[in-house]
Amino acid sequence: MNYYIIAGEASGDLHASNLMKELKVLDAKADFRCWGGDLMQAQGGHLVKHYRELAFMGFTEVLMNLRTILNNIDICKKDIIAHKPDVLILVDYPGFNLRVAEFAKANGIKVFYYISPQIWAWKQSRVHKIKKVVDRMFVILPFEQEFYKRFDYDVDFVGHPLLDAIAQYSNQSNTLAITSDKPIIALLPGSRKQEIATMLPLMLSLKKHYSNYQFIIAGAPSQSKEYYSTFINDADVKIVFNQTYQLLQKAEAALVTSGTATLETALFKVPEVVCYKGGAISFAIAKQLVKVKYISLVNLIMDKEIVKELIQNELNEANLKIELDKLLNPFPRKVMLDYYAELIVKLGGAGASKKAATLMINYLKAN
Description:
Layout: E1 2-7, H1 10-26, E2 31-36, H2 38-42, E3 46-50, H3 59-64, H4 66-83, E4 87-91, H5 94-106, E5 110-114, H6 126-133, E6 136-139, H7 144-149, E7 156-157, H8 162-170, E8 184-188, H9 193-204, E9 214-219, H10 225-229, E10 238-241, H11 244-250, E11 251-257, H12 260-267, E12 272-276, H13 280-289, H14 297-302, E13 308-311, H15 317-327, H16 330-346, H17 352-366
Parallel strand pairs: 1-2, 1-4, 2-3, 4-5, 5-6, 6-7, 8-9, 8-11, 9-10, 11-12, 12-13
């Protein structure tokens, strides 16, 4: 079958690539055309556009780049019509993907959605559009199935694909090259330039307080080493690319920008502080619209504050130091790690990519 897959971020590229891997096992004639990244391309996907060209963060940033976004949507629609896939598989990235879903559905193309948009957090009204334009939704968070049920929409809970991705790395030898024996504090400042420019200087401001630790930055594959270097004044700070999991395997604690990385860090059992600071206008709008108590997936899944969230004005050097000190203390560390064990159980076990691929193939054969 011919699959057209769209992922707009690094995490989507990871999960879509693992889904493609499982689809190939079940469908020997699988052919993939995609919007995504290097991992999807490595699975044999013909890459139309890289997610580096698609990622814009926040309300004001989206408005500033609206012409580019609309042009990309138009290119995508024309490409879908030109290649007539058997199914369109969308991976998160709702602002773009829901517009494409509506177009595909109107043109008689079956639409699957893998990894639900976080409409339970804000824009809950989108559920009505999803019901109209998405044939099957495959969710990865345990509370999402109940959320959709409230709107009389049956979805499939497949478990979280991060469990599989992390298991793959955990079974490999760690190749992280470090010269110092000092324990590691990992810095995960995000993948977009706007995030990095805001978060990284704040994270690095702590280094002077922790001479007995080494600070290592997880570099996003979408950014260059030269870009990170503009924020680093200390030669002792190391940057690693495409080794985030290896870094987390060895980290003592982590400072993490809100996003999928907060959950990845927890699944590697690394105590963390969650950081977020956006543009003033974007944050003011989001504050009015967001319907959830927490910003990190860890706290949302557990429905309580397991990891400390420092948001907007609370995110400063003094507060970061207070919270990092706690993580380096044995008792608070143990409490957080015990909660992490509960988190893993709640996520539904391994095999999400395989479950999703099997269900997709079965639905396609049934039709």
